[in-house]
Amino acid sequence: MGNVLIFGHKNPDTDTICSAIAYADLKSKLGLKVEAVALGEANNETKFALERFGVAAPRIVTTVASETNEVILVDHNERQQSAEDIDQVTVLEVIDHHRIANFETKGPLYFRAEPVGCTATILLKLYKENNVEVPANIAGLMLSAIISDSLLFKSPTCTAQDVAAAKELAVIAGVDAEEYGLDMLKAGANLSDKTIEQLVNLDSKEFEMNGAKVEIAQVNAVDVNDVLARRIEIENAINIIIEKKGLDLFLFVVTDILNNDSVGLAFGKDASLVEKAYNVKLEDSKAVLKGVVSRKAQIVPVLTDTFNQR
Amino acid sequence: MGNVLIFGHKNPDTDTICSAIAYADLKSKLGLKVEAVALGEANNETKFALERFGVAAPRIVTTVASETNEVILVDHNERQQSAEDIDQVTVLEVIDHHRIANFETKGPLYFRAEPVGCTATILLKLYKENNVEVPANIAGLMLSAIISDSLLFKSPTCTAQDVAAAKELAVIAGVDAEEYGLDMLKAGANLSDKTIEQLVNLDSKEFEMNGAKVEIAQVNAVDVNDVLARRIEIENAINIIIEKKGLDLFLFVVTDILNNDSVGLAFGKDASLVEKAYNVKLEDSKAVLKGVVSRKAQIVPVLTDTFNQR
């Protein structure tokens, strides 16, 4: 049957797509027949990176079992984040930097997860361990992944290993990390072509917190006021989602990629828990969340604790 | 709270105990406060290795949460094989060579699983990646682990990486792998001090196969006739277990560590499926299983297929 497919999670971001491409490059040089694919369309930020380094976007698939028996996962391991029919194929390898959950295999496999800020940081180690040189265009994509996941090294999820890897990759790619990185983040923060529904769903995840249903969406912006100008339309769209899904809280986070603060818009009957969690006052459903840039590190655990304490 | 505890699975074997000791050596040299412990007493084979290389057996624990918040698992990841209260502590790292199942974390961790024959083979890579030298006595224990898991490189689970690692470790430890290895396996195969109940339970695991309850026990022997001389007592002990647990099949496997064959004793109403699985005839409940040495690779999957086909 077909090539081994390598892919990242649904709603792909820059790390998920660039790491699939990079690992496919490494594995093919090690003699495996592979193809990088994606479980969705690349976002504006990722498209900017792919164009800059002259690499085509991966083919989009939603299921895999009809064309292969074997897959390699990057940047995720949880079943519900993966291909729809992931249970019908053998997972040969996983390269990831997230928690492990909802994952099970029949036999031994290569599973490499490390608590770093980006999958690409682990991939650079794998290139070295296998004595394979990183090509300049792949180095550019891996650098893009680190910049994206770390918000140009400002996120609390960013480790010294990520910074060192990015420095090394920037030299191979021949770009200035800070200058290129800001251009790439700005390309991703260009939301002018998005409808309100796209804006609200662009990077949205649902969580259960002490029995409450909480959804948290995040968008990056160069000027948060560009997004906040559409506040009324956003509120209407979110209220429809709250109604439809029976949510207790919808937190819409607009992150300022230049100043590394966020503005939160909180709706739903538990909106006041955002005030408690960050010791702020919502005005017009809105509050500045000083220094908050990472949903994974600075929002989900803080809100979870607040829900657990009530 | 206390040191980070490093341990392997319940019913510890040589890889589980020696890998816990070796990884504790490496992690302490990397600055972490750790202690290797064990979830049970070392078997005769492991005791032989510990004595030969002058290393004390790890302290035995059954629970861990009363003395630490953080643990590192080696040679296993499944919850039911781990400490009783594993859900009450944070797993910092896992180093393993088994399938992944029944494992979940709240946050990212270092998880390194590889499809090789022995955990110690992965640990040798970690020593190198961290530029730490393996001390001679630790190298001896790691070599012992590889010899044990691979039955002196004869098991089908043994990979080229395991053989290469063992060769390197034997030089550091200053021993002849074949000569030392056979002495160690013989020490483990000395069953003369075991009661019939100990013999039958020494290394016994239960499986579900297409709805049937199957238990498979395995012991190593230098002369299988030493064990088979106690056939009547073994049969009586096993029939009591079959009755108590409602088993459909109990397969007792005596593996000849010199000739790398096994003799199987099959009891229970589904004993005939062993005949079908290996194309043999049971005589006095007994059959030679040519070339079979690995329960994981040569018994569980073969019997599972046979049960699934009926």
Structure, explained:
Chain A has 310 residues and is an alpha/beta fold. In chain A, 40% of the residues lie in helices and 20% in strands. Chain A contains 11 helices and 11 strands. In chain A, strands 3-2-1-4-5-6 form a 6-stranded parallel beta sheet. The first copy, chain A, has a 5-stranded mixed beta sheet with strand order 7-8-9-10-11. In chain A, strand 7 (204-209) and strand 8 form a beta hairpin. In chain A, helix 1 runs parallel beside helix 3 (119-129), helix 3 (119-129) packs antiparallel against helix 4 and helix 4 (136-150) runs antiparallel to helix 5. The longest helix of chain A is centred in the N-terminal third of the chain and has 16 residues, at 14-29. The first copy, chain A, is globular, with a radius of gyration of 20 Å. The model of chain A has no long low-confidence stretch (mean pLDDT 95). The A-B interface holds A 97-115, 129 and B 97-115, 129.
Short synopsis of the structure:
By secondary structure, chain A is of the alpha/beta class. Chain A is 40% helix and 20% strand. In chain A, a hairpin with a 2-residue loop joins strand 7 (204-209) and strand 8 (212-221).
Spatial strand arrangement across the major sheet of chain A: 3-2-1-4-5-6
CA radius of gyration of chain A is 20 Å
- The overall pLDDT of chain A, averaged over residues, is 95
Output the structural class of chain A. Answer: alpha/beta
List keywords for this structure.
hydrolase (chains A, B); inorganic diphosphate phosphatase activity (chains A, B); five-stranded mixed β-sheet; DHHA2 (chains A, B); alpha/beta; 310 residues; Mn-dep_inorganic_PyrPase (chains A, B); globular; homodimer; six-stranded parallel β-sheet
